[in-house]
Amino acid sequence: MLILAADQASKWWVLAVLHLPDLGSVTMLPFLNLTMVWNRGITFGLLNGEGRASSIVLAAVALAVVVALGVWLRRAESRLVAISLGAIVGGAVGNVIDRFRFGAVVDFIHAHAWGWSWYVFNVADAAIVCGVAALVLDGMRPKRDSRLAVGSGRD
């Protein structure tokens, strides 16, 4: 819920307070701009420009993924996995809300440095990427087999 609230609050601020669609771009730091992008596609703008029907289909697919992640979340065996899944779900729901409200996802964070530029993204996208990265790192950690632990009562 924290990710969802932060995502929607940041998008509200960018649209209703800053009026970024009218400004186009605002320099915040030498390596960070707020740049308005309406992402009608999926990650990195793929499938962009496929129309309103595409936006609804993408939202439906995202909701199905959220349901599956919710089932996984209920079965999470560690706090890290639960927090990671919560970040992914919160971000996905935030972007689904955009698709239903606007027909596109509100992207506005533009990081760049020394001629390098990343895709414009939002708080939800950042939460999804961080959540997935944490799940991957958690999956790479060696797991301790409780059956082999000394004093586990299984001799």
From TrEMBL:
Pathway: Protein modification; lipoprotein biosynthesis (signal peptide cleavage). InterPro entries: Peptidase_A8. Its EC number is 3.4.23.36. GO terms for molecular function: aspartic-type endopeptidase activity. One of its GO terms (biological process) is proteolysis. It is found in: Cell membrane. The chain crosses the membrane at residues 12-32, 52-73, 80-97, 117-137. It is a multi-pass membrane protein. Keywords: Aspartyl protease, Cell membrane, Hydrolase, Membrane, Protease, Transmembrane, Transmembrane helix. The active site is at D107, D125. It catalyses: Release of signal peptides from bacterial membrane prolipoproteins. Hydrolyzes -Xaa-Yaa-Zaa-|-(S,diacylglyceryl)Cys-, in which Xaa is hydrophobic (preferably Leu), and Yaa (Ala or Ser) and Zaa (Gly or Ala) have small, neutral side chains. GO terms for cellular component: plasma membrane. Belongs to the peptidase A8 family. This is Lipoprotein signal peptidase. It comes from Limobrevibacterium gyesilva.
